[in-house]
Design brief:
340 residues, alpha+beta, outer membrane lipoprotein receptor (LolB), chain A, 2 domains, 13-stranded mixed sheet, seven-stranded antiparallel sheet, 21% helix, globular
């Protein structure tokens, strides 16, 4: 009898130990879905590094979320502090603010649910939940999911690794790879503040534009207001097309340059700057398309037109033959190109 009880105790202990083993993928996914559903708000800071051509660009991104569906994403570029921008989503829509230009654009967009956003917690969880074939591993203090991405505007980055803290289930690191498994984008998160209260107006367009505008030096604002004597910038990526025409025009209160490329892909690049007066408030301008990151700034993308602003200059890239991915490639090469 004693021997029988001993064996029963051993078997019982084995089952207990097995039950206390490492969490399964299904367990983590279930907890993750429950956690994100119950989350009322969060705030964090991330560092995003992108490999664009031969150079790397780094951004500091301050992210805030409040249920239901309020977002504030403040993007700082270390090399261009005056070019910092804010993406806001509130009950009025999606906005991109450029405080140094005192400008705001309103997008008719379902951002951020329309594509992967590697700096947003909800977007990363959505990518995990939507990929039933995602790989799952446990390394040190992390749950690691390897999933497909959902970049509607850029099919060249198909895969990502998402590192979640085992205790809080919040993202700690995201690595995004190209088709050859080269690391292209890396996002590193600081600890999350969960279920916090935000000040009134934290997600308002007027409050954000005004507070950031007043924090800029007057010299910076004046410089951004008059960039009509700009240097023409040329793309390093042309898909074997050649520059066939350069036209310059004097427009009301400004200057416009038009570059025409023909060959394997036909496209036109417009660079334009106007002298404008600083006013206390401007109504948001409507922007067609979806917000997309172009070099160090946020632009608007449609099927045949990509537009963005940088250092007080407005850029437009139009083409019927470039794919969406190719338009972004050309634009990003222009954004980092030195004067030719």
């Amino acid at each position: 009898m004693n021997r029988m009880m001993k064996w029963c105790f051993i078997l019982f202990s084995i089952f207990i130990i097995a039950g206390c083993g490492e969490a399964s993928k299904e367990d983590v996914v279930a907890k993750l879905e429950k956690s994100i559903t119950e989350l009322t708000s969060y705030q964090t800071t991330a560092i995003m590094e992108m490999q664009t051509g031969e150079t790397a660009q780094q951004f500091q991104i301050d992210v805030a979320f409040k249920a239901d569906n309020y977002y504030r994403v403040f993007m700082h570029n270390e090399e261009d502090e005056e070019g910092s921008q804010i993406i806001l989503k509130n009950e009025q829509g999606v906005f991109v603010l450029t405080p140094s230009l005192n400008k705001s654009f309103r997008f008719q967009s379902d951002w951020p649910t329309n594509a992967s956003q590697p700096y947003l917690y909800h977007s990363l969880v959505s990518d995990i939940l939507n990929d039933e074939q995602a790989d799952f591993t446990i390394v040190d203090d992390y749950y690691i999911f390897t999933t497909l991405t959902n970049y509607q505007q850029n099919q060249t980055l198909p895969m990502q690794e998402i590192y979640l803290d085992q205790k809080t289930l919040t993202p700690q690191l995201v690595k995004i790879y190209d088709a050859d498994y080269n690391l292209v984008v890396e996002v590193m998160f600081e600890p999350f503040e969960l279920n916090i209260e935000f000040d009134e107006g934290y997600f308002d367009v007027d409050a954000n534009l005004t507070s950031q505008l007043f924090s800029l030096p007057v010299s910076t604002i004046e410089e951004q207001m008059d960039q009509t004597d700009f240097s023409i910038r040329y793309p390093s990526v042309t898909y074997d097309s050649q520059l066939t025409d350069t036209s310059e025009f004097e427009i009301e209160d400004g200057r416009r340059v038009v570059l025409t490329y023909q060959g394997n892909r036909d496209f036109t690049i417009v660079q334009e700057a106007k002298t404008s007066e600083m006013v206390a408030y401007r109504q948001p301008e409507s922007a067609l398309g979806e917000p997309v990151l172009v070099g160090s700034t946020i632009g608007a993308l449609t099927d045949h037109l990509l537009s963005w602003s940088e250092n007080g200059i407005d850029y437009y890239l139009a083409s019927d033959t470039l794919s969406v991915d190719e338009m972004i490639e050309v634009a990003q090469s222009l954004a980092v190109q030195m004067e030719k």
